[in-house]
Amino acid sequence: MTTLEDLPIRDDLRGRTPYGAPQLDVPVQLNVNENAFDVPEDVVAAIEKNLHAVLAGLNRYPDREFTVLREKLADYLSGVLTRQGGTSSLRAVEPEWLWAANGSNEVLSHIVQAFGGPGRTALGFVPSYSMHPLITTSTGAAWVSVDRNADFGLDARSAVAAIEEHRPDIVFLTTPNNPTGTGMPLEVIEAVLAATAGIVVVDEAYAEFARDGYVSALTLLPDNPRLVVSRTMSKAFAFAGVRLGYAVAHPALIDALRLVRLPYHLSDLTQAAACAALDHAEVLLGNVDRLVAQRDRMSATLADLGFSVVPSDSNFLMFGGIRDPHALWQSLLDAGVLVRDIGIAGHLRVNAGTEEETTAFLEAVTAIVRRDP
Ligand code: PMP
């Protein structure tokens, strides 16, 4: 039997393992930071209508510039920025500042293809999203991991010191961070922008779940042509199955992404579904507060049980003080609850679910702790 080892694969891919969060058929799935709520019926109906309208035209390639989707994303973000208030001269986002692709993973891969590649370096502060190094190295660029502080935070001084030491071409900042959950102050991003001549990617996949006081890096865009803010419809919009991520940056930076994207990368079906969802943004985002309430409930209960809980601006929590994380992960799975063992000593990560799912998790974890304190 031929194995991968027998094929003339690139040397730098030999021995690597693919991204692989377990996809198990378990009653309560709280492991990949999805939105727990189904797409509401009226939004399903609107998506069906939009899909129907494009079906007969599927003999043609889709709009390469996803013009309508871009306008709708710009409208959504203009609302976000207006709500952030007074911190920026950018009062609205123009469609030329928008990019979109099949999930923010693909957006990130476009950014690294354009600004990374062989001979270049990207740097990130870990623990963080495990795909950043995988996306980087798949373009032939080198990856540098710099440890976050002991409390998983990142301060401007250490971030700048790391950049001065490694002089990366791309810096990844994830805020709110995955898997730790916490957002980062805007001063850190500003300090990083000032310290590097490279591209700064701010991955804001979870920004809609942030606590009051969180200010988006979107507010920094007008003065920073090397900044790109990446976001997604997979989390707050409950749209992970569609695969729609987007980025905002100076139009010149967006032009660079056009050089590396495959022609017609966003199908008509994807564009039509995403447009329908954006037309119903308020309904879809209506569940954000419910998830935040469940997150805060989990946080309080886990703290009462004696775990340390990392402050979260996301739809998930990282909790610590676990003697054997893999054993707890397995016991929860045995109880029908799938959480994530993120490979950080003493810690696990769990999504906020619906109220019922969250209750199932909390009851299971309480029973396990009582049984085996
Ligand atoms: N960024 C971060 C920080 C994430 O956690 C994820 C998904 N877990 C992504 C990007 C990618 O999400 P998607 O491709 O679904 O937009």
Automatic annotation (TrEMBL):
It is an enzyme of class 2 (transferase). It catalyses: L-histidinol phosphate + 2-oxoglutarate = 3-(imidazol-4-yl)-2-oxopropyl phosphate + L-glutamate. Pathway: Amino-acid biosynthesis; L-histidine biosynthesis; L-histidine from 5-phospho-alpha-D-ribose 1-diphosphate: step 7/9. Pfam families: Aminotran_1_2. Its EC number is 2.6.1.9. The modification N6-(pyridoxal phosphate)lysine is found at K235. Homodimer. This is Histidinol-phosphate aminotransferase. The gene is hisC.
